[in-house]
Amino acid sequence: NKKGSDLCEPTNLTTQVLEHYITKYDLKRLDLYCKNLADYHLIMDLLPSISRMFFLNQLGDTKLSAVQAAILLGIGMQHKTVDVLSKELELVPTQLLGLFNKIIRKLYQVFMSTTEHAIEESLGLKDQPDVPFVPKQIGQGLMEELESADRSIKKKQKLELERLKEDFEIKGSDEAWDEALKSGGNTILSIRSKRPISDKSNKFDFEPPKKKKKSFHKKGGKK
Fold first, then answer.
1. In the predicted structure, residue 211 carries a pLDDT above the cut 90
2. Bridge-partner residues for 168, per DSSP?
3. How far apart are CA 114 and CA 18, in angstroms?
């Protein structure tokens, strides 16, 4: 007698078959369970559909061990609880749940692989060669931009420093300054600036407007 999984020829899983049984929301729930972010009760309603795809050989060459197939059959098709199935298979419930987790992880990878291939085909990326990622080139470009910005800042700082030196130049030699500082008293120290000082006064002369004289014309008398 042939096993139930050998009654149908294995066929590769297609997106049409997958979407008939599993929705995108269901894939998200499976993902949470595979990452240990959700309990197995969250995906129990998906087990009949998943079991059907497996035992109808709609998952390609995906293989499970005899114990794993028995667990999937008992929970997915016969709707047995973990406690009942663990007694029948003579397994500790935690051990059975560990094997169940491995089953779901393996089948979830098949589902995601099918989905990814379908997306690649829709985008026309399936037959294109992979372009190697070279982070070194990006790093060099970034370093060149930083070095260019640094040179520009240093150049501006140098020009500003030279301008300040030209604007504010201290008059007198070192000997003259030493002598002036030693003499003490009411010594006036002066700083010469090269900036031109405007001689214009801040005062404004306002000349009042001249009043125009009114001219009066005498009217002629009546004749």
1. no
2. 193
3. 8
CA–CA dist 40, 30 (Å, integer): 9
User: How far is the C-alpha of 178 from the C-alpha of 33, rounded, in Å?
Assistant: 85
Rounded CA gap, 104 and 33, in Å?
8
Parallel/antiparallel/unpaired status of strands 192-193 and 168-169: antiparallel
Contact by Cβ (8 Å): 44, 115: no
Locate 217 and state its tokens: 């014309």
Which tokens belong to 209? 């407007």
**Each residue of 118-153: pLDDT tens digit?**
888 778 766 556 655 555 555 566 777 788 888 888
Angle CA(134)–CA(137)–CA(139) in degrees, nearest 5? 110
- pLDDT tens digits, residue range 74-127? 999 999 999 999 999 999 999 999 999 999 999 999 999 988 888 887 787 665
Nearest to 65 by CA among 91, 42, 29: 91
| Alpha-carbon distances, residue 194 vs 165, 168, 201, 204 (angstroms) | 10, 7, 20, 27
The pLDDT of residue 5: 44
90: left (phi over 0), alpha (psi -120 to 50) or beta: left
Q: CA 77 to CA 51: how far, in whole Å?
A: 7
| CA torsion through residues 13, 14, 16, 18, sign | positive
